[in-house]
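User: Hi! I'm working on a homework problem where we have to compare a predicted structure to a textbook description. Could you give me the structure for the chain below?
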Amino acid sequence: MKKIFKSIARYFKGVKKEIGRIRWTSGKDLLKYSTVAVSFMLFIGVYFYIIELLTSLIRSVA
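Assistant: Happy to help. Predicted structure tokens:
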């Protein structure tokens, strides 16, 4: 039974060690990447809205 608890403790020590090795993104970079992603999504949304608008106008004329 003690062996199980030692294994669990060793596992969580390893997890803690690995978390310490992670290189977290800085706040400045996170803001930059988020802005780019949201801008891209807005651009794609507007693009498809215009395409949909044009196709509906063409269908209504024909």
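For your comparison, note the following. Residues 43 and 49 are 10 Å apart (CA to CA). The two ends are 79 Å apart (CA to CA). Good luck with the assignment!
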